[in-house]
């Protein structure tokens, strides 16, 4: 009896040396931005709390977003993570309905997700600065 | 049958569904907020304050906040179960995530009803 699978074939699970296909990259970015957003939520809630606390707090928040470089950078980071997670999430929902699950359409969906996110992240940067 | 005791909805199927329903809520809230802030009129304190004073907005925000809590738990649970193999460390991470999530919810309620 011959075995269909040669058990001696080499196995490589070293993530650093595997060339990831594009859908895998969109997937890991979705996870990374998800974890990042968990931290980002603290900044967003701080800004929301400050802006709603009083008129002085609101002005302080506006001042921060208009002149604070660090605040702008953090805001851009938060919004970028949110936008990417948003588009990748929509791709996920589309795939849940059974679309874009083939090699070709899956690659296309990943390309569209990355393209849309890149544009949105740039536009967000323009908006913030 | 081994059931996971740390999942959110007591089964993977519930978690799967909850993750998607909360995602839709969060997507709607994101679209609304970005639309309001980026494409609305120049923001003033009066506008901003009266927006969050409205009951509908408070309901929407609280819904988004609770959706975020469930979404975050399921997401961080999945990610930590995949990457943090030592049980003690994973337990610590998941407990910490749960605690921070709870703090976010209380903080958010305070912001919403503290106006």
From TrEMBL, chain B:
InterPro entries: SQR/QFR_C/D (IPR034804), Succ_DH_anchor (IPR014312), SuccDH_FuR_B_TM-su (IPR000701)
Domain of life: Bacteria
One annotated GO biological process: tricarboxylic acid cycle
Protein's pathway: Carbohydrate metabolism; tricarboxylic acid cycle
Membrane-topology annotation of the record: Multi-pass membrane protein
Record has Electron transport as a keyword: yes
Cofactor: heme
Membrane-spanning residues: 21-39, 59-79, 91-113
Pfam families membership: Sdh_cyt
Function: Membrane-anchoring subunit of succinate dehydrogenase (SDH).
Cited NCBIfam families: succ_dehyd_anc (TIGR02968)
Protein name: Succinate dehydrogenase hydrophobic membrane anchor subunit
Gene: sdhD
